[in-house]
Design goal:
mainly alpha; 10 helices; single chain; rod-shaped; about 290 residues
Length: about 290
Amino acid sequence: MRDLDVIAGELYATPPSEFVAKRDEEAKSARDAGDRTLAAALKKLARPTQGAWLVNLLWRSESDLVESLFSLGAELGAAQRALDGDEIRSLSASRQKLMSKIAAAVRRLGADRGVRITADLSREVESTLDSALADEEVAALVRSGRVVKSVTYAGFGPFGGDLSAVPTLRSVPSPAKKKSSRASSPEDEDEDAARAKAEARLADAREVLEEAEEDYTEREQAFTDMESSRDSLRERLDELREEIRDTEAQLLAAERGLRAEKRRYERAESTLEQARKRLAEAEDAAK
């Protein structure tokens, strides 16, 4: 019997539209095999969003690319903390090339499965990978290949925002700028506050979008399931109606046969009575 990790890995590489049916099939197989614990664990697995599914596929097929991105992100973070402008410039260029390869890989994975990679799907994938660069727990989730929904990094560290927004030298203050920042004007503070609010609103909007997309996916699956159930019931009803028509035809034939048999029975009964009467008369005449 296969274990939970193996089955879950396969399930999360399954298109979201097929996930629930496949999960329930695996749970039934486990239950039929007597492993109720595994069946219960499988039933608890949540269906991934389209973007999360693409992240899982990316990890399964291009783990080297993802690991390269994680390594490059660590180096870029160290360079930013050290305020090493030359290193940041070099690593940023490498990161842009790597992200182009990852974007092409995602498009290829989608095309192979008949999925068009929209801007929203791209943002979901980028957001999750971006969060993985800033959070080891998210990175571990990506490496598990069992991402359920996209993750948005809410911090303001070097990896905040989309992966497409690669840090440049403009994000690294020079010594002169550091001095002026200590004497920032009220206008600068207002601008920083406005930027922080805008980033917070953006994060909220993305979260709302993710929840809406997840709800849409669930409702779409529920609608598809109900539609399939209705079609099955219609087919069963048509079969029953056909069966009723056949039974009614058989009943009519049986009634016709019964009437004919009744007539034959009545003639036989009359013949029997006449024969008995003739026998009685013959017996009287013979005395």
